[in-house]
Amino acid sequence: MEKELRERKKNRLDNYDYSRPGAYFLTLCTEGRRNYFWDKVGATIGRPQDVVLSSKGKIVDEAIKNIPRIYPAVTVDYYVIMPNHIHILLTNHADEFGRPMVAPTVDRMMQQMKGYVTKQIGRSIWQKLFFDHVIRNRQDYDEHVKYIHENPARWYYDELYSE
Asked: Tens of pLDDT along 63-87?
């Protein structure tokens, strides 16, 4: 009997140009949700002020900060590095006439960032895909900024939590 394959949920919008100007909320997870990015991982009460990035976490931090250096049309507005995933809120900007500036797709930027981290570490630590959300308006943007800021304090209750 042949095992029926379940249809994979689409993780990109159909017919959407991911290089066009706009804001995007991205989540990238480690393979197997392994905790690579914090030196101390565990339950905390309140926002963990004593979080120290591991050596791998510092490489990820550097990679995120490199995005606007490599792509001047893109800004990384906010981000948070969690033990086993990262959230990034970035904006692809238009020029003064509203035309898209030269920037690759979000997918290409994330693949290049993951590739940089892989090269620095010496092996891949990432899940193959990542999750994205196209920001639709100011309220949506503000909700994702709040999520990024509050994520470390909610780590123990996070759906991606693992010890």
From this structure: 999 999 998 889 999 999 999 999 9
Write out residues in the chain with pLDDT < 70, as ranges: 1-20, 41-50, 95-103, 156-163
Q: Which structure tokens are listed for 155?
A: 């780590």
**Element at 29 (helix H, strand E):** strand 22-29
Specify if 13 maps to a domain.
Answer: no
Return the pLDDT at 153.
78
Residue 71, token pair as written in the block:
């792509």
Domain interval for residue 81: 22-157
* The pLDDT value given to residue 47: 44
Position 153 in a domain: yes
Decide: 53 and 64 in contact? Cβ < 8 Å: no
Q: Tokens at residue 111, please?
A: 């693949």
**Could you tell me if residue 15 is inside a domain?**
no
Number of domains in the chain: 1
CA dist 86 and 56 (Å) reads 12
Q: What is the pTM of this model?
A: 0.80
What is the DSSP annotation of 73-102? TEEEEEEEE-SSEEEEEEEEPB-TTSPBPS
Amino acid identity for residue 162 in this structure: S
CATH classification at residue 124:
3.30.70.1290
Residue 9 lies in a domain: no
